[in-house]
């Protein structure tokens, strides 16, 4: 092989390797879920009742499970530690920390669940209810109806 061709080929190969290994974390939105969408997910999950605490396997207004919280990066309240026995419940029962948990979960699992070519509130609501690997399944009718009504009510606002 001609040394100039080899050098050119090697340069292109190195550039491709660098591109594949590039940090693309900046391409993911810091907060992919809008405030309106967070309210709609909260409303569909619990009526956004701030008195809702832990029952069964989920906690708080967003009905967050321990696995969901862990997948979201284990956000915690100030002064708490992710390893603390109460960190999950403390966060899931706090409106701001719970909203941060939803944002973290969507940063990890955000995807176009309904195949319309965009990632929007309908996708985030499906991911929240069905999980990051199940969002293409059928969303329960009662939950979807509440999300749809909330989105229509908020029409004109970014959703």
From TrEMBL:
It catalyses: Hydrolysis of (1->4)-beta-linkages between N-acetylmuramic acid and N-acetyl-D-glucosamine residues in a peptidoglycan and between N-acetyl-D-glucosamine residues in chitodextrins. Its EC number is 3.2.1.17. GO terms for molecular function: lysozyme activity. The keyword RNA-binding does not apply. CDD domains: lyz_i. GO terms for biological process: defense response to bacterium; killing of cells of another organism. Disulfide bonds join 37-121, 42-48, 54-59, 91-97. Keywords: Antimicrobial, Bacteriolytic enzyme, Disulfide bond, Glycosidase, Hydrolase. This is lysozyme. It comes from Aedes aegypti (Yellowfever mosquito).
């Amino acid at each position: 092989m001609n040394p100039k061709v080899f050098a050119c080929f090697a340069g292109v190969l190195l550039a491709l390797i660098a591109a594949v290994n590039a940090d693309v974390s900046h391409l993911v939105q810091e907060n992919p879920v809008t405030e309106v969408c967070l309210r709609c997910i909260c409303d569909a999950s619990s009526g956004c009742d701030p008195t809702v605490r832990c029952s069964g396997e989920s906690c708080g207004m967003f009905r967050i499970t321990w696995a969901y919280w862990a997948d979201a990066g284990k956000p915690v309240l100030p002064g708490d530690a992710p390893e603390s026995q109460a960190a999950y419940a403390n966060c899931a029962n706090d409106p701001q920390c719970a909203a941060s948990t939803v944002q973290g979960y969507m940063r990890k699992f955000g995807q176009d669940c309904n195949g319309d070519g965009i990632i929007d509130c309908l996708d985030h609501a499906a991911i929240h209810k069905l999980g990051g690997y199940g969002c293409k399944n059928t969303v329960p009718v009662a939950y979807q109806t509440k999300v749809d009504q909330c989105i229509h009510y908020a029409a004109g606002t970014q959703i």
